[in-house]
Specification:
Layout: E1 6-11, H1 17-30, E2 35-39, H2 45-55, H3 64-89, E3 92-96, H4 99-109, H5 114-125, E4 132-137, H6 140-147, H7 161-177, E5 182-186, H8 191-205
Parallel strand pairs: 1-3, 1-4, 2-3, 4-5
Helix pairs in contact: 1-8, 2-3, 3-5, 4-7
Amino acid sequence: MMRGRFITMEGGEGAGKSTMMERVANWIEQSGRTVIRTREPGGTELAEKLREILLDRNNLQVSGKSELLLMFAARAQHLEELIRPALARGDWVLCDRFTDATWAYQGGGRGLPGEDIATLETLVHGDLKPDLTLLLDLPVEQGLLRASTRGQADRFEQESNAFFQRVRKAYLARAVAEPARFSVIDASQGQDTVWAQIRAVLQERLAP
């Protein structure tokens, strides 16, 4: 059986990933394929519990290293329990964030050493990488304004503008380093315009 495709959606706060996830999933299903929608941190019972810890606005005492290890602990369970079995069945996996988010948030935002992230990446998923990563990019100020309408901010959403500027810079550096895997989408536009960009990428890179 042919291995399924692994697609990830990345971006900072307010980029519109959740909305576009649904459109991408519908596009995949219309082609007759089975798609598994998931997210990080999360996707399994254990990983969702770790997500609660990581996003809890009251857990401000969590250190950068603890945060990094919790992210990869959740990812290890996610891969073992959900992602790898789905891909082996031939299903397509569509994931809201993956390891690129760790490079952006814990690496860029927190300033944690890249060597530590790379070591954990190798340990947890080795050479398994997404077949396509859609990076929804927009100015930090615009994203934070959008995010502010969603209700109470989680632990990450309380970070400074400077933090999110570093996150954006790290994401874009990842895209430059791996152009064959990444596609940068201008997420500052309206939903239909953003979707038109994404659909064009899907048709070019993933259509049979």
